């Protein structure tokens, strides 16, 4: 598996990512500062101050792209998009179609951003990254927290642009918790399992959770009721990749999402919400998964289909 990491500031191109039972392990992310109006931690919302480093392939980074679009922050928060291929050197910037180089720090490898902040860093080099151009540091690299802080820090008083209204926050947080392990991380637990048992456990939990949310969406348009919230952003970025990559590449193939009438209507509803389809890049999604995980797909051949009935 071409998954490396930093160890005491040195890049190593291999890492262990399963436990003794063959279960996929996902270590927590490291940079967890908060941007707030009061700026308790030195990060206040300001147009032009922050930069997002993302991959179009990555479901976690995709959450932040969607929030940036829904809030209308494209001019206020600048963007870099990595090459979809993550090889032995980890994420890097290139001139490939759809990519945007690092215009802020001029790096070639994403790991150099982490090393700029901590030259002795040990840990994974992940996207998304919310970067502060003023303090030249990483504010946060946890998608769920980045979308919450952008949501609260910019235009929160506009009900049309608030995706975590105070009366729904408890429910939104519970929902994001509930979908994380079986669905968002579940597809990875299935795909990166190295034993039959670990794989089957992950797939069984995944489809039990999908069945549950299918029944919820029979009664309401969105996970927390009748309006689009952060919880929907968190689920959508996994579901939009499901039939294109998780079904085949990660062997999550009990059913397609398009076989679930309510889940598929829900995916289409969100996909066609203004601003969202532009954040979905299936070329990068398919190229990343099928080319980067050489233990799962050693030939690196990227399938032609499917044609998604979106
Ligand atoms: N918990 C993080 C996960 C981020 C993450 O794992 N991103 C993947 C891309 S899909 C990554 O950069 N992986 C590189 C690696 O694990 O080395 C979040 O939600 O932001």
UniProtKB/TrEMBL annotation:
Region described as Disordered: spans on this chain: 1-23
UniProt-listed Pfam families: GST_C_2 (PF13410), GST_N_2 (PF13409)
Signal peptide: none
InterPro entries for this protein: Glutathione-S-Trfase_C-like (IPR010987), Glutathione-S-Trfase_C_sf (IPR036282), Glutathione_S-Trfase (IPR040079), Glutathione_S-Trfase_N (IPR004045), GST_Omega-like_C (IPR047047), GST_Omega/GSH (IPR016639), Thioredoxin-like_sf (IPR036249)
Domain GST C-terminal: 165-289
PANTHER family registered for this protein in UniProt: GLUTATHIONE S-TRANSFERASE OMEGA-LIKE 1-RELATED, GLUTATHIONYL-HYDROQUINONE REDUCTASE
Name under which the protein is recorded: Glutathione S-transferase family protein
Organism: Phormidium yuhuli AB48
